[in-house]
Write a structure and sequence with these properties.
It is a single chain. The protein has a 7-stranded mixed sheet with strand order 1-8-6-7-4-2-3, with helices on both faces. Strands 5-10-9 form a 3-stranded antiparallel sheet. It is built from 11 helices and 12 strands. With 345 residues, the protein is of the alpha/beta class. Residues 58-64 and 338-345 have low confidence and may be disordered. It has a single domain, classed as Alpha-Beta Complex (Spore Coat Polysaccharide Biosynthesis Protein SpsA, Chain A). Belongs to the glycosyltransferase 32 family. One of its GO terms (molecular function) is mannosyltransferase activity. The chain crosses the membrane at residues 294-312. Pfam families: Gly_transf_sug.
């Protein structure tokens, strides 16, 4: 029994040690689960979060007398990790300038991007420079640019189909994401919006190593980080929060957010999205495969767990104990030896 207790104590100590080391990772995964579980119920209880977009030829009734978001388009081209030259995206860039002729356009590259972060967000700079992937820097950069300048951020593989002027009446708007949450390929915001400040406040604590590039990007700076912080922000809003602090999601006139989702190669009422996903690697493909065949994966994990439990039970199974009133003696019978118990007197 003593050996069994020692093995059990060792297993419990090892489990507690692992949980302690991975506590921040488990926090982030729990946030993902909470986002998936509460995103659509939140929209059902707060339909005012949906901006029911109408084309420019039938403009909506203004929410404000002034435009909250400045007429600035930000786009980012960081060379590290990119195979395609900037020329590949010129048609999309030109389209957005053509349908928004009075807007200022900024293209941020490796040099001016790092200079900007160092000058205005020095507390984020160590994380910005320390990220292993260029897409992580591009994600954090877009949030910082919109916080500082305001305006619109657009991915380079987006082609603009409609002017964005009507949306400037909103304080913050993004498309929805699949299967839940919000997408960061298109963001419109006023400067210093409360959500962007909340987002940037989470950069340090979410800068974790995950061992898989896709997951590391998604949870440290990408769409899941963006969505998790979005959900925590909207939960913090009170019923009396003004439109300047609220966040909106693009929807059609029926309140459906799917027509505006920038998911893969798709055309929405506002954009054509190329779905480049140039940063996706082997782990992204693996996650997609697991998602398509999750039942096989769940069965595999179940088998592994069952084998682990059986192994632990075998290791901790108690052996028969010989009474102290008996002593062991070796009797030799012929050419073989036998262990016999001889009762002590």
């Amino acid at each position: 029994m003593a050996r069994q207790r020692q093995i059990l104590a060792l297993c419990v100590s090892a489990l507690l040690g692992i949980l302690l080391l991975l506590r921040h990772h488990l926090r982030d995964l729990s946030e993902v689960a909470r986002t998936y579980a509460t995103f659509y119920p939140h929209l059902a209880h707060h339909p005012e979060t949906l901006h029911r977009y109408r084309p420019a030829n039938n403009p909506p009734t203004p929410r404000h007398e002034i435009e909250l978001a400045p007429a600035i388009i930000h786009q980012i081209f960081l060379t590290e990790g990119r195979d395609a030259p900037l020329a590949k995206y010129e048609a999309g860039i030109t389209s957005c300038q053509a349908v928004n002729p009075d807007w200022t356009h900024y293209l941020w590259t490796d040099g001016n991007a790092t200079t900007f972060v160092a000058a205005h967000y020095p507390e984020i700079l160590p994380h910005y420079e320390g990220y292993k992937q260029s897409i992580q820097r591009a994600n954090i950069l877009r949030y910082a640019l919109l916080d500082h300048f305001g305006g619109v951020y657009l991915d380079l593989d987006i082609t603009c189909l409609q002017p964005l002027d009507d949306l400037r009446l909103l304080s913050f708007v993004t498309p929805g994401a699949y299967p839940a949450g919000v997408n960061n390929a298109f963001i419109l915001s006023r400067p210093h919006h409360g959500f962007l400040q909340h987002l940037l406040d989470g950069v340090e604590s979410r800068d974790l190593l995950w061992g898989m590039p896709y997951i590391e990007n998604m949870l440290s700076t990408g769409c899941m980080f963006f969505s998790n912080r979005w959900m925590s922000y909207v939960r913090s809003l009170s019923a009396h929060s003004g439109d300047e602090e609220r966040v909106f999601i693009l929807a059609d006139q029926t309140g459906d957010i799917e027509p505006h989702m920038l998911r893969g190669k798709v055309t929405t009422p506002l954009f054509t999205h190329g779905g480049a996903s140039s940063w996706h690697g082997w782990d992204a493909a693996a996650i997609v495969m697991i998602g398509k065949h999750y039942y096989y994966f769940a069965a595999f994990l179940g088998c592994v767990f069952s084998l682990a439990v059986l192994s632990i039970r075998r290791c901790t199974k108690s052996r028969p104990v010989v009474s102290r009133r008996w002593r062991r003696s070796m009797d030799k019978t012929g050419d073989s030896e036998a262990l016999v118990g001889v009762k002590e007197r």
